[in-house]
Specification:
The protein has ten helices and ten strands. It is of the alpha/beta class. The strands form two sheets. It has a seven-stranded mixed sheet, sandwiched between helices. The protein has a three-stranded antiparallel sheet with strand order 6-9-8. Helix 1 packs across helix 8.
Length: 250
């Protein structure tokens, strides 16, 4: 199994505060695909953005992440049990999970080892869902232009190579299971300037740019965005396209 690439532990509290949640329609879709609603295994759970929602439809959710710092900052929720474990070694019993989900994390996994673990812990016909969201978009045109320039030009050279899988919606990832055609579930929120800037600061590419260039380009982006935003308390519409690879484990 390849080494864990930890891009997020040092900012786990910001991850918990600023990473978006997922639409409830996504959780309903996954629950309806699952053969039962006894146990969901959420791998690479981060601070529990999806795990907490799965508890609305599953009797028990096991949420695991290789980062102990992420788990320490996870959202406490009844019926959700968190543990610091890699997705490739979940610790679950054989044939115990009705759903195995991975949100915004599978591009960091050792796919061979992960899929072997999926086959081990899945009940017959359990659902497997790989979920990712791409680059966000801001409803205000001036802010959108500044954000996209920062994403592609300033931060662009510092994205880890695995980021390409996110930008491709996971379409190029190996997926050796009978696959369903999943509907589209965009993430839509209404955010203040502080929330947007807090989210951007969780990007792994921002950590890389900061290490290489210092904070000056990041602070320049923040100043430009503040100018484009205007009243910092005004809430703007934010949207992420959501992509899914969903199949049955057989």
């Amino acid at each position: 199994m390849r080494a864990f690439k930890d891009h997020f532990s040092t900012h786990a509290s910001s991850y918990a505060a600023y990473r978006p949640s997922y639409p409830p329609e996504l959780v309903d879709y996954l629950a309806d695909l699952s053969p039962a609603r006894g146990l969901a295994l959420d791998c690479g759970c981060g601070t529990g953005q999806l795990s907490a929602l799965l508890a609305n439809r599953f009797a028990r959710v096991i949420a695991i992440d290789a980062s102990a710092q992420q788990i320490a900052n996870a959202v406490a929720r009844e019926r959700v049990e968190y543990a610091a474990r890699p997705a490739e070694r979940s610790g679950l019993e054989v044939a115990s999970a009705d759903l195995i989900s991975v949100a915004q994390a599978v591009h960091w996994f050792d796919l061979d080892a992960f899929y072997a673990e999926v086959r081990r812990v899945a009940k017959p016909n359990a659902a497997l869902a790989l979920i990712t969201y791409g680059t966000l978009h801001v409803g205000r045109p001036e802010a959108e232009a500044i954000l996209q320039h920062f994403y592609s030009t300033t931060a662009g050279p510092y994205w880890p190579p695995e980021r390409r899988h996110v930008e491709e919606g996971y379409r190029s990832l190996w997926f050796p299971f009978p696959e369903f055609q999943a509907p589209s579930f965009p993430i839509e929120v209404s955010w203040s300037l502080e929330e947007l800037l807090g989210y951007v600061d969780t990007w792994s590419a921002v950590r890389g740019a900061e290490k290489a260039l210092g904070r000056a380009p990041i602070e320049a982006f923040r100043d430009d965005m503040a100018w484009a935003w205007g009243d910092p308390h005004r809430r703007e519409s934010i949207c992420w396209p959501l992509s899914l690879r969903v199949g049955a484990v057989r």
